[in-house]
Amino acid sequence: MAHRVLTETAVSISEHKKNPMATVAAGEGMAVAVLNRNEPAFYCVPARAYEELMDLVEDLELGRIADARLADGQEPLRVSLDAL
């Protein structure tokens, strides 16, 4: 079964073990696929990129909560940020 590699950059697990920081640098700020027997074993994600991903996940979850609350049939209540 073929596995998708979801990055533009990939390194072998042997290369990664030799110099993990070189793996991070190879991605130039983006994730790097670490391959074991030509299949992605894991992704090496720089801290800043991971933080951005977590912010996106949080935003998606807050959006789902807001959508669920709007779907309950109650009239939305307008407030200003200053009032909060």
Sum up the structure in keywords.
single chain, 84 residues, alpha+beta, YefM-like fold, 3-stranded mixed beta sheet, 3 helices, 3 strands, 44% helix
| Overall tally of structural domains | 1
Describe the largest sheet: 3 strands, mixed
Unreliable sequence segments: none
Written as H for each helix and E for each strand, in order along the chain, the element string is EHHEEH
Quickly give the structural class: alpha+beta
- CATH class reads Alpha Beta
Helical fraction equals: 40-55%
Physical arrangement of strands within the biggest beta sheet: 1-2-3
The assigned CATH architecture is 3-Layer(aba) Sandwich
* Shape summary: elongated
Q: Determine the number of helices (DSSP H or I, runs of at least 4 residues).
A: 3
Q: Could you name the CATH topology?
A: YefM-like fold
Number of strands: 3
For the terminal residues, how far apart are their CA atoms?
A: 53 Å
Q: Average pLDDT, to the nearest integer?
A: 94
What is the percentage of strand-forming residues? Answer: 15-25%
What is the CA-based Rg, rounded? 20 Å
